[in-house]
Amino acid sequence: MPLLEELDARGLVVQATDREALSAFLVTRPQTIYCGFDPSADSLHVGNLVPLLALRRLQLAGHRPVLLLGGATGLIGDPSGKSEERNLKARELVEHFVQKLRLQVSRFLDFDGANGAQIVNNIDWTERLSVIDYLRDVGKHFSVNRMMERDSVKTRLEREEQGISYTEFSYMVLQALDFLELARSESCLMQIGGSDQWGNMVSGADLIRRELKREAHVLTLPLITKADGTKFGKSADGAIWLDAAKTSPYAFYQFWLNAADEDLDQFFRYFTFLPLSEVAALLTAHAAEPGKRTAQRRLAEVMTALVHGDEALAAAQRISEALFSGGLAALTETDIESLERDGMASTRLPREPIGMLAALVQAGLAASNGAARKLVQSGGVMVNGSRLDDPSAELHFSDALFGRFFLLRRGKKQWHLIVGES
């Protein structure tokens, strides 16, 4: 299937400049194509995977990807999708974010061969540009009237209490300048990005046409929302990050495992490299027996291996199976540490003996010692995988997992982690 048709079939094309010309551009010869990511945090999140993996798809089709990290634009702030002015971040912090993202994105692209990927930072050409050169050589090509018609600007202008600063108003000019610079230095004549970037991106294509007299192409990708209308990539505790130190592979695995049936089709098409025929077969099998959640498990496996690797996938599956079955012996110390980091309810206690009833109350698994006693007597408490039947028992950290942890379970699903403090 031709590349543009493949992207279409996956639902990955929202807008494009001159579809016929773009299709010809992609099949004529290998092209250089770029996508930009502003360093607004020290990690990307799952929503960023759509454009990041789109770059990978283009590379697999023979094109050369350029991934731009916005060390300059990240200091300004993109008004797209924002109802109020961003807080400007310190230069040192943005540079730290750039370095973190540089390491993170490198695992998704191939940097060797004729179409090896390249990572660039727009601070390299922006910071040496004088104000006079910026206004005379770049600003002269931008009509304020047209800029004010862009959705990202118009929405803010309609909010009298907020408005938009000249700083954020100039963001689209800087992004257009990025496209022009890459067209000059890398012969890059195509940009991809989220659909909220359409105005900024076509401004860049227009700037290339004016300055270089060449045709440039733009393709936008969907912004993901879930079937229930909630923002994609958000959990009860916040974003689902690609950095394992911020969202562990186990929590990442669980995010996909808990995908709603209604979201499976688009998740498989947008985020995986599975052939569409295999996706259709998976969804058909799932529809026949949805209770088995076969499709969700496959999605979780594919995505966790893609982002974190096979070893992390094995750890995520090990933790999931251990918590489901209550057989905790297979868990490693790192596995348990990740549970605390992921937000499993936990209590830190001195490494001293504590009565089991008091521990249950402190953990919030029982309202009082009396309620805890009844819970134990009814067989409703498990401690590190073993059922507790003696209400007078004590927890001794010499018996703890790795000398530090007690995993308490009330009933089938209510877990609490007690961590011994050093």
Strand-helix topology:
Blueprint: H1 3-9, E1 15-16, H2 19-28, E2 32-37, H3 49-60, E3 64-69, H4 73-76, H5 91-105, E4 118-121, H6 123-126, H7 131-138, H8 144-149, H9 151-157, H10 166-169, H11 171-186, E5 188-194, H12 198-212, E6 217-221, E7 234-235, E8 238-239, H13 249-257, H14 264-271, H15 276-288, H16 294-308, H17 310-325, H18 333-341, E9 346-350, E10 354-355, H19 356-362, H20 369-377, E11 381-383, E12 386-387, E13 394-395, E14 405-410, E15 414-421
List its salient traits.
elongated, 422 residues, 20 helices, 6-stranded mixed beta sheet
Describe the structure.
- By secondary structure, the chain is α/β, with parallel strands linked by helices.
- It is 46% helix and 15% strand.
- Helix 12 links the parallel strand 5 (188-194) and strand 6.
- The model has no long low-confidence stretch (mean pLDDT 90).
Strand content: 5-15%
Anisotropy-based shape: elongated
Low-confidence stretches: none
Most strands sheet:
6 strands, mixed
The overall pLDDT, averaged over residues, is: 90
Q: How many H/I helices?
A: 20
The total beta strand count reads 15
The order of strands across the largest sheet is 1-6-5-2-3-4
Gap from first CA to last CA: 59 Å
Whole-number radius of gyration? 26 Å
Please give the share of residues in helix: 40-55%
SS-based structural class? Answer: alpha/beta
